[in-house]
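User: ok so my PI wants both of these folded by tonight, can you help

Assistant: No problem, let's get them done. Here's the first:
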Amino acid sequence: MLQTRTLTALLAIFAIAQSAPAQSTSPRLGRWKLKSTNPAPASNVMTYEKFGESGMKITIDAVNKDGVKSQWSYTTNFDGQDEPITGNPGADHGAVRVVTPSINEIVYKKDGKVTQILTNVLSPDANTIAVIYMRQDADGKTSNVTFAMYERIE
């Protein structure tokens, strides 16, 4: 009987220890592939990695329809502060703020001007991210709105 209680206690401690990091880890971490009808080689994969205490590094790996590869990235602490973007010709800074636990607002800028605003929505099952992209023209008016779905691949 004592062995059963000891085993049960050890399993409970193990379960708590295993669940503790999961609670402090963002459900967005991992790799996400654009759900697209575009034929290969076109693809787009977002990778979200832990950065610092509570931040995230975002890396976008894309291949256009002609097979040309690109990669760009930035980090965020989800505080709405501009952070440098590397590798993206259309934006040199990005700022991310949390609207709700499942919704982030992302603002991309080039030379201090807003070029795009994204609304990034994580599904309740944490297996899909929907993104609304709103491009801004030189006058700051929305010039184009598109929608994309990403599915978790890792």
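One down. Here's the second:
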Amino acid sequence: MQPNLDLTFRALADPTRRDVIRVLQKGPRRASDLADALHASRPAMSRHLRVLRTAGLVDTRGHAAPDPGDSDARERIYSLAPGPFEQLRHWLDEVEQFWGVQLASFKAHVERTRGKKR
């Protein structure tokens, strides 16, 4: 999936989704573990994870449940996906470079004109 910066910003605009990202930085988690860690209902966490998946910020993989008699034979494990974060980092680097040039130019202007009376 090609990362989309607009989807990334939209997904990260919500503080709960940013918290999900923080938890996943420590390692992959099940949706239920994320809900518990963030004191969110499972349906709410499901909605947040759907937004994060759509934006490409998280990946899922299924794992066999440890107990074959478990009614849910597979569960999704969520982890961070690097693509959108790399695109975001690239965009931020470009913005930082732009402002670095602008501020250096402003500094040079101030130093050139310091002490000059108009």
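The helical segments are 5-12, 15-24, 31-37, 42-54, 82-113. The mean pLDDT is 84. Good luck tonight!
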